[in-house]
Amino acid sequence: MGTKFIEVDESHKGQPNVEEGVKTIEVGGQTITTPIYVQRIDFDDLAPEVTDSLTTVKFAVTVAEEMEDLTGEVDEDGSPVMEIKEIQVPKWLEIDLGPESLKQYEEVMAPFFAAARETEAPTVPAPRKRRKK
């Protein structure tokens, strides 16, 4: 998510997206810490000037990744032979878009959406338990 912070005065305390923090500065060899207030501003990842009516779009792309795999063979020293295989894996991404960027995304993706099949949401595999030796 595109996010920036701007310093605001104490009168903004308690307003949405306003957080209290501290600012540390060094003056004449001394360190001074003072309270400050900052406002978080989320913005369109493609058009940073757009900060209203944002929509988070999540999607997956398929990328190539290398994986070590056993060949079933054994080296002369008795160790298993490994080979590097290229496999295709999904990479999950998200982007925050304002209304105009979202419209552009939908227009570009329209032929792909039209040809796509509906599928089940991905499941998160359970953590693997370690075997006791």
Write up what this structure looks like.
By secondary structure, the chain is mainly β. The chain has one helix at 99-115, and strands at 2-8, 18-27, 30-43, 55-74, 80-97. The chain has a three-stranded antiparallel sheet, with no helix packed on it. A two-stranded antiparallel ribbon has the order 4-5. Strand 2 (18-27) and strand 3 (30-43) form a beta hairpin. The longest helix is centred in the last third of the chain and has 17 residues, at 99-115. The mean pLDDT is 87. It comes from Streptomyces luteireticuli. This is Tail assembly chaperone. InterPro entries: Lsr2-like_dimerization.
pLDDT averaged residue by residue: 87
Structural class: mainly beta
H and E string: EEEEEH
Question: What is the 3D form?
Answer: flat
What percent of residues are in strands?
over 45%
Largest sheet: 3 strands, antiparallel
Strand order of the largest sheet: 1-3-2
Structure summary, number of beta strands: 5
Number of helices: 1
Question: Helicity level, as a percent range?
Answer: 10-25%
Cα end-to-end separation: 44 Å
Q: Specify Rg, calculated over alpha carbons.
A: 25 Å
Low-confidence stretches: none
Protein name: Tail assembly chaperone
InterPro entries: Lsr2-like_dimerization
Organism: Streptomyces luteireticuli
Q: Gist?
A:
InterPro entries: Lsr2-like_dimerization. This is Tail assembly chaperone. This protein has 1 helix and 5 strands; from the N terminus they run E-E-E-E-E-H.
